[in-house]
Amino acid sequence: xxxxxxxxxxxxxxxxxxxxxxxxxxxxxxxxxxxxxxxxxxxxxxxxxxxxxxxxxxxxxxxxxxxxxxxxxxxxxxxxxxxxxxxxxxxxxxxxxxxxxxxxxxxxxxxxxxxxxxxxxxxxxxxxxxxxxxxxxxxxxxxxxxxxxxxxxxxxxxxxxxxxxxxxxxxxxxxxxxxxxxxxxxxxxxxxxx
Length: 194
Known about the structure:
Order of helices and strands: HHHHEEH
Number of strands: 2
Largest sheet: 2 strands, antiparallel
Distance between the termini: 32 Å
Number of domains: 1
């Protein structure tokens, strides 16, 4: 190989490494931004829900997030932001530390795969269950002539503490996406080791 070719290859390698570092910085910044947004939305929801509980002695899980539009009326609900940033945050984590999965022993990986698969199946079931109930209640409310999608809730799993269906549906969808992606990442790391 000529010295010019060696110099060109080392320059290409340097550019490649700089690109990887810049991409990693983007994912680290994305992770911290998403984590901060998740923490802010969750804190707001807990604070407002606690205030409502003190007044009425009743609480509907997730209703505050399903009813609060941000940054102004007519815009997206906080639960939508929470769903999106939780999936984005997970994706950033896998891009930052995804290579470390290869160092996990095969026995532990097998155990993690079973857990993640179980979580994905449960999340998918809950998503479909909540979506079907939500659709049924929307149909019922349309027939009655009253349509308020964001206030529909179901007294499940505890009659005393119902769940808002918008919140439950969106967050179980996020849980399914995250668990499915985790299953893919862990399975893919096994194939790379062979």
